[in-house]
Amino acid sequence: MRNLFYFFGQLLCIPHVLLFLFSEEKEVITKDLYARKNFNASKWHQVWDLSKELWLNRYFRTLFYHRTQGLFSKILRIFYPKASTFIIDVNTKIGGGLQLAHPYATILNAEKIGEKVYVNHLVTVGEKNGKRPIIEDGVELHANCIVIGGITIGKNAKIGAGAVVTKDVPENAIAVGNPAKIILK
Questions:
Q1: PANTHER family this protein is in (predicted)?
Q2: Each residue's pLDDT tens digit in the chain (185 positions)?
């Protein structure tokens, strides 16, 4: 019964699949789709997984709409809404493989977010005085952390839960606390 539900739900996502197939961002969307697992799927398996994810996961759908901006994408948003509690600024450049761990009440407003970045819930990445952060590849942003201003979070850095980051964080570092302090370099 459950598989039948998924199947009919996925049929409703056919317009999204068409948007994906004609998108210039196919490779990046595929990286997002398989961000949590290493998987080289056939083209049809990718379509199946994509339609299932779009049907069941509003957060992924929000990211998908960010990747496929355009008139057709905006029309689809009317019938298949994105998550109202997950906001991505239209000017934020995001690399492939963004891992979304239930990003409830999350705002991503950065200059750039690198590849394979992990984002948890209640995360705020935002501007201060017109300057936005740069988040490098492999960064982990844990629950309720805040990253603001014209700062850079280095590759593979980890921002701990509840941290408030207003200064640069070097590569491979761990930043925790309010205000954030580097505890490991």
A1: SERINE ACETYLTRANSFERASE
A2: 666 655 666 667 788 888 888 889 989 998 998 887 766 667 777 888 888 888 888 999 999 999 998 888 888 888 888 899 999 999 999 999 999 998 999 999 999 999 999 999 999 999 999 999 999 999 999 999 999 999 999 999 999 999 999 999 999 999 999 999 999 76
Place of tokens 């936005």: 132
Q: Is 41 left (phi over 0), alpha (psi -120 to 50) or beta?
A: beta
Cα 74 to its chain centre, rounded Å, is: 18
Helix (H, G, I), strand (E, B) or coil at 63: helix
Rg of the chain on CA atoms, in Å: 17
Q: What is residue 131's DSSP assignment?
A: B
CB 146 within 8 A of CB 176: no
CATH number for region 86-184: 2.160.10.10
Q: Does pTM top 0.70 for this prediction?
A: yes
Q: Minimal CA–CA distance to 133: which of 117, 113, 116?
A: 113
Element holding 60 (H helix, E strand): helix 58-67
Residue 114, by phi and psi: left (phi above 0), alpha (psi -120 to 50) or beta?
Answer: beta
On whether the CB atoms of residues 141 and 117 are closer than 8 A, the answer is: yes
Residue 13: phi and psi, rounded to 5, are: -90, 10
